[in-house]
User: What shape does this take?
Amino acid sequence: MPTFGYVNPYRNKGVECENLALVCMDFRFRKKINELLSQAGYRDFDILAVPGASKAIIDDSHRQIVLNALKIAVSLHGIRRLIMVDHIDCGTYGGSSRFPGQVEEMAFHTERLHEAYQIIKSQYPMLEIVLMYIDWDKLQEIAAF
Ligand SMILES: [Zn+2]
Assistant: This one.
């Protein structure tokens, strides 16, 4: 098996991390989200990739997975901010084809993100929460609480 060497800048440093990014597992957006969040000033963030991002919080069947990971991120890394990123053409929400256009699709995700926000806020009132949406050519902040 080949070995791949690298230098980890976090070696022998603390494990504090300010942010947790909740993103969809979709490979088409993940790398770009990582890059753009760093550009947006969120230099370090834990990442939790689950199908649908906001949908994983809204759906009873997946909510506990997110809450368990969030609990660990808060207690182990001391995160103070949750960044939730929904994306265009998300298969778990039925994809872009179920919407008349991109405006309607983004409006739908804006509502879902707010719904997810309410659920998290009720359990973690001290957590700062940022709602974001990424389409084919930009990542934008929808709201920050
Ligand atoms: Zn998705």
Observations:
- The pocket of zinc ion is lined by residues 24, 26, 52, 87, 90-92 (CB under 6 Å).
- The mean pLDDT is 96.
